[in-house]
Amino acid sequence: MGKSGRNFLVRGIIKLLILDSINEGEKHGYEIIKSIGEKFYGIYEPSPGIVYPTLQLLVDEGLIKEKYFGDKKVYSITELGKRTREQGLEIIDSFLNKKMSPNERVKVMRLMEIIKRSIYDQLPFLSDEQVKEVYKMLEKANDDLNRIILDLANSTLKN
Q1: What pLDDT digit, counting tens, does each position of 47-76 carry?
Q2: Angle 66-67-71 (CA atoms, 0-180°, nearest 5)?
Q3: Domain with 52 in it: what CATH number?
Q4: Phi, psi of 69 (to 5 degrees)
Q5: How confident is the model over 89-106, as pLDDT tens digits?
Q6: How far apart are CA 87 and CA 108, in angstroms?
Q7: Domain total for the chain?
Q8: Buried (b) or exposed (e) across 57-69, using 16+ Cβ within 10 A?
Q9: Which end of the chain is more exposed for a tag (fewer CB within 10 A), N or C?
């Protein structure tokens, strides 16, 4: 699937996740982001750069309504949005179960975040030699992951 196809898929899932979040009750953008993050056990939250344009798209499509409370927009789901969400529940559940079931996938995602944060925090304090060692370790891990992915792709093509 090309990059635009992947973006379309992600946008479709985000639309459904937003509808699902708003179905729980009126929310402003930040609350929607946090609500979606909870579905991913706190290890992923969609960025405002994804959520806010998608909210506007959902308003334009008549799936949600917006109103202002002070300087904040609050979003609520429309009847059309509820029907769209209902039709997409199986997709939402499948996506969440495939991507984030509370098992090994979650452990992998948490470990990636821990490693990223550790490197980010400690990199300024490492010597040049230590930076080279960290780079070699990450390069090897990347090569190993690519090998696993290539093996999976090859076995899928054979079947």
Answers
A1: 899 899 999 999 999 999 999 988 889 999
A2: 120
A3: 1.10.10.10
A4: -120, 100
A5: 887 777 676 655 556 767
A6: 31
A7: 2
A8: ebbeeebbeeeee
A9: C
